TrEMBL record:
Basic and acidic residues bias: start-end ranges: 201-217
Molecular function in Gene Ontology: small GTPase binding
Gene Ontology terms: biological process: Golgi vesicle transport
Top-rank taxon: Eukaryota
Protein's organism: Phyllostomus discolor (pale spear-nosed bat)
GO CC, one annotated term: Golgi apparatus
Name listed for the protein in its UniProt record: Golgin A4
Bias-annotated ranges (Low complexity): 71-80
Residue numbers spanned by region Disordered: 39-83, 194-217
Species lineage: Eukaryota, Metazoa, Chordata, Craniata, Vertebrata
Amino acid sequence: MDQQAKKHLQEEFDASLEEKDQYISVLQTQVSLLKQRLRNGPMSVDLPKPLPQMEPPTEGAPKENSESDAEAAAGDGSSAKTLEILQQRVKRQENLLQRCKQTIQSHKEQCTLLTSEKEALQEQLDERLQELEKMKELHMAEKTKLITQLRDAKNLIEQLEQDKGMVIAETKRQMHETLEMKEEEIAQLRGRIKQMTTQGEELREQKEKSERADAAE
């Protein structure tokens, strides 16, 4: 909205400056004609009238009244009076021209100031856009880094789960083998105990038989 408003204001200034340039051109022509008539003679031709559609750029500018001036010059019948009137008109036209130039200069300065402000704002906008672009790139980089870290963590967890399963399976296998070995050892020990018990009973029986045989003799 600010850019549109400034663009509209710039267009109004341009149109105003163009109108003032045209008005200055008309005033310069009138001043030139008046000066020429002053050189050629005050009563040679009628006085020029300013354009009715043009208005002075500042308030308080004197209004032209060619009819009253002409009537005054005709009623007096004096060439000196007519010369004075023409000189006053030239002076008024020159003053009006000077005011127009001052107004145009003021408008040009305002245009220059607005242009400078526009350029400064545009520069600030470009800097802000660059900062936003950098922030966007940084955000994307951090997002990519975070996604990579999450993916690595997920892969690590999956690997740990696999390793855990393998460790559990290996532990179960070792425990099973150990239990089988222990059971086999226990079975062997039981066999040896049974064998030793049998041998002990046989030896006891033989001993008892031997003792009975000795007692019978």
